[in-house]
Amino acid sequence: MTENEDWYGSEVATFGDRVAAARENANMTQAALAKRIGIKQSTLRAWEDDLSEPRANRLSTLAGILGVSMMWLINGEGEGVDAPEDVSTNAASVKEVLIALREVRADMLKRAEQVGRLEKQLRGILQGETRD
Predict the structure, then answer these.
(1) Cα–chain-centroid distance for residue 23?
(2) In the chain, what is the greatest distance between 2 CA atoms, to the nearest angstrom?
């Protein structure tokens, strides 16, 4: 496993992390990249914040503009950007924290889905009461 795959691998980084890293490596702002792709800056921000993901045609365009492979953007494997230069001997600690953050994020997403189901259940109950 190379340093690149380790730093941006699927166990450590998200799709949004890799998009942001590739954009920064290309010395582009969100506004500049969004304009080149033909999307709103808020759309790109949502991709980088892992709130949404692009369709295949946009993913292909994004990868081409940033000079990385689509697979690297998706899962950290393939042609991508190198790990940051300033990674020190604390890399193992950084990786542990990133893994912990990813676990918390996954738990939060699961909890958000649970909240959505409970809200739907509550609406159903309340609508049933208004019909009676």
Answers:
(1) 13
(2) 66
